[in-house]
Each structure stands twice: as C-alpha cells, then as structure tokens.
Design a protein that fits this description.
Strand order of the largest sheet: 3-2-1-4-5-6-7
Strand content: 5-15%
Bound molecules: nicotinamide-adenine-dinucleotide
Order of helices and strands: EHEHEHEHEHEHHHE
Number of strands: 7
CATH architecture of the largest domain: 3-Layer(aba) Sandwich
Shape: globular
CATH class of the largest domain: Alpha Beta
Distance between the termini: 25 Å
Oligomer: single chain
Radius of gyration: 18 Å
Length: 262
C-alpha cells in the first residue's frame, strides 16, 4: 500500500513538538500540504523550518486553540482543510482532591473544546466536498482513567464521545471521523516528566521510563514507551484515502495496555 496525500491540506494542532510534530512530518512525507500550529510564532517558525528541510509542503499558523478567539483566528487564516488532526493536549498528574475548578476547565478547553470548535468550523466544508478526515488524538487514559489525573482521563473519554458523535453525521459520505489512542509515548512533554521522575528517584532516564511502565502500566504488552513515529504511523493511515472503511472507530496504538479484545 502506498499512501498518497498529494492535493490534500492537513492541519495538525499542537504540532511544534511531540506526537503532533511527528504526525505533521508523516502527513507531509505522504505528500499532504501541512499546516503546523502552536501558540508561539517562534516555535511555529522553527517547526516549519525543521520540516521544510526535507522538502515538505508546510506552513505555520500561531494560535491558541484552547480559546474561542484562537480557533476563530486560525479558521480565518485557513478557511478549509481536508484533514484535521485534533492533537493539542495537556496532562498533569495531580490528586483528585487537589484539582481546582480552574484546572478542570483549562483541561476541558485545551483537550476537548479545541477539537469541538475546529470540527464545527471545518467539517461542513468536508461534507460539502464529500471528502475529509478528522482524527482526535485521545489516549488509552480515556478508557483506563488514571487515578493520578482523573481530569485528564475525563477529557480523553470526552474526545472519544465527540469523535463518535461526529462520525454519525458522516453517514453516506466519504468523510470519516476517528480517534487514535496512544499509550505512554516519548514526546517532548513526556520526556520532561520522565526526566523529573529520574531526578527525584536518582535513576537514569531509561531506568525511570522502564520503571514507570512496570509500575503504572503493568499490563503493557510492549513494556516500553512508544515512539512518536509509532503513533504518527497510525494517524497517517487513518487520514489516508486507503482508510475509507474505517469510520467512528477508536484505534489503539497503546502497546496492548487495555486488556479487552474490542
Ligand atoms: P507535547 O506536550 O509533547 O506537545 C504538545 C504540543 O501541543 C506542543 O507543541 C504544545 O506547544 C502544543 N499545545 C499545547 N497547548 C496548546 C494550545 N492551547 N494551542 C496550541 N498548541 C498547544 O504533548 P504530546 O505528549 O505530544 O501529546 C500530544 C497529544 O497526545 C495530546 O493530546 C496528549 O493528550 C496525547 N497523548 C499523549 C501521550 C503521551 O504519552 N505522550 C499518551 C496518550 C495521549
């Protein structure tokens, strides 16, 4: 199978680093014209330069997708997309009794409302043109709610519900809406978290990563963090023309942590 996305425009939110950047690179590598997004112009410009080096068709738009104004500005600068990847997301381990309302609301704005607002803006155009792909980057934590960050888990479950609901609106068209569920993945954000753990426990980063998986994700079949490319590969596939029969699905790329068949 050869994935060819030439002629398609893709927007990946939160793609200056981490999983989002790997997705942008994967889509560009398959011929899509890719729009990088992040909050700060400097980081967006640097991420664009990084991909341009490999001959990709790429440009950047700085906008904070956690706000209505940020989404509005983004849509004004880019009125139509063929592929929307709702990737921007935040996480932070915090005990339930220490999570104030403000954190709950912030997590909901960044992790859920960004995708809601952008899907509302872009999906009607996809339906009119009768082709489109919307992919929500949820998490295995949307199925196995982590006790150490319940607010995060709730937003990741909410994304699954939004994606499935939107898929219902595509019936009879060539538009698809799916979710991809990564497990622990060595993105920049997670690397910082693992480095902190390593420092706290007097371990090397590799030891801390292996320990984290053993302790916190003991059912993992791969017993390691995934690479950002392993997640991006799944997203590029589901964004492709070849994935036309995959719609309304929650696709796992979580190393087998979730111990159920479906
Ligand atoms: P990361 O922190 O490494 O990168 C996140 C990117 O999003 C950065 O470029 C950041 O600048 C950007 N961003 C954050 N808030 C933004 C906002 N308001 N507007 C625009 N951009 C914003 O994160 P990551 O680990 O690559 O995670 C990406 C997605 O994957 C998230 O939705 C996360 O929940 C999900 N996920 C990650 C893991 C993991 O272990 N890394 C596991 C499961 C799911």
């Amino acid at each position: 199978m050869k994935i060819d996305l030439s002629g398609k425009t893709a927007l990946v939110t939160g793609s200056t680093a981490g999983i989002g950047h790997a997705i942008a690179k994967g889509l560009a590598g398959s011929g899509a014209s890719v729009v990088i997004n992040g909050r700060g112009q400097d980081k967006v410009d640097a991420a664009v330069r990084k991909l341009e080096g490999s001959g990709a068709k790429v440009r950047g738009i700085a906008a904070d997708v956690s706000t209505a104004a940020g989404c509005k500005a983004l849509v004004a600068a880019l009125p139509d997309v063929d592929i929307l990847v709702n990737n921007a997301g935040i996480f932070e381990p915090k005990g339930f009794f220490e999570i104030p309302d403000e954190d709950w609301i912030r997590f909901f704005e960044v992790n859920v409302m960004s995708g809601v607002r952008l899907s509302r803006a872009y999906m009607q155009g996809m339906l009119k043109r009768n082709w489109g792909r919307i992919v929500f980057i949820s998490s295995e934590s949307g199925l196995n709610i982590p006790a150490e960050m319940i607010h995060y888990g709730v937003t990741k479950t909410a994304q699954l519900a939004v994606a499935r609901g939107l898929a219902q609106l595509t019936q009879g068209t060539a538009v698809t809406v799916n979710s991809v569920l990564p497990g622990p993945t060595m993105s920049e954000g997670v690397e910082t978290f693992v480095k902190d753990l390593a420092r706290q426990n007097g371990q090397s980063v590799d030891e801390a990563a292996a320990n984290f998986v053993r302790q916190h994700r003991p059912s993992s079949l791969i017993q390691r963090f995934a690479s950002v490319e392993e997640i991006a590969n799944m997203v590029v596939f589901v964004a492709s023309k070849e994935a036309s029969a995959t719609n309304g699905a929650a696709l796992r790329a979580e190393g087998g942590i979730v111990n159920t068949i479906a």
